[in-house]
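User: Structure please.
Assistant: Input sequence and predicted structure:
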Amino acid sequence: MQTRRSLIAGGLAAPMLGAWRTSADPFKLMSEEGRYLPLAARLRADVEGKTGPALLGAAQSLAQHLARMGDEAGALAAWDLAFPNTRPGPDMDLTGATARDALEEIVEASRGRRIVILNEAHHVSHNRRFAERVAVALAAEGFNVFAAEAFQQGRPPAKSGPVTSADGLYLLDPVYAELLRVVRGAGYRLAAYEQRDDQEAPDNATPAERTAAREEAQADNLIALALRDPKARVLVYCGFGHLIESPSPRGERMFAARLKAKTGADPLTIEQARGKPVLDPEKDDPVVRAVSTKFGSYQSLVVRQADGTMVTTAGAGWMAADLEVFHPREPDMNGRPAWTSRDGRRLYLMLDWTKLPPGDQRLLQAIPEAELKLSKAAVPADQYPLRPAAKHGALYLRPGRYVVRVETPTGLHRIGAVTI
């Protein structure tokens, strides 16, 4: 049986663990050349031997990077090292509960709203694919501004051209890069609302003061940059708890609460970060497990009790959002999570294994050809680690022309170009 440690170890040989110490900076290699493996080696090495708070930060960073690489199982395993989901308790009683397709529920609830706020878990790329679906659906409803916490401080991405790390570090995940490409194609105006350096709390500020400064800055920036047009209808994409509308028991107010107070507009808040199964089914949140057991769907769902109340992992507490989305535990498709094959993606199956360089560390990538011609740092449209014994690769791509290549510890190896 594979353990969490073995899943994140990824078969790294000792020479590779040491390679980043003597080669170019691994983050620079990723952000400027599209090479992800050196940083993976560094982050895996950082996790080893750590416990307590030191493990917390290292494992989070590793989880987010493995998600960028298309290694969903590895990302969930690394996150579990930082936040073991051991919440006890029986499954929620869902007698009489009903489920509805989450996208249909969101579209209906968005009507008459000016602001919709959707969150993500930064280590769950599936959240980003769902955000793409939400963005497309809301564009048809008249939403015309896409504001993302991930965009570089004070500067949204260009309306066209290559997607690179200059647009924001989270966009180094191909699923997020594809979200941006789809949003641009849907006609959204882009807005960057993250806190700027000049809005940070003083060096001697407490953690609570730093958090308050960031939440306040985000609200102010969104008002100034995304809501300046009275006709703007804004889809805001944020991380984790920024969408909480109610003050905490200690009086802390997050971004959404501050935005609501400043504008008087009641945003539709959609929680999806907590509603996905974890790696080990036995460690699923009891509410997530109950939804999965009762409905067993491959759809993303919103669930209501018989009396109409929303089923949420936060219960009736202050952290509850207007809607909570429950994502399914999905089967593999050609060695990939099934969600990667949907939403207009077509399968490119590379069967000629003689084109693949040998080795245990191989990252299969497809980069939009037009973007790669403009920047060698263009983010792939899809990528994932090949298993050591793999003799073919499966990529899921929107129609277009792509350069297919493989990254190994020695560099990037072009396979060829393909039209989908």
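The CA atoms of residues 44 and 311 lie 37 Å apart.
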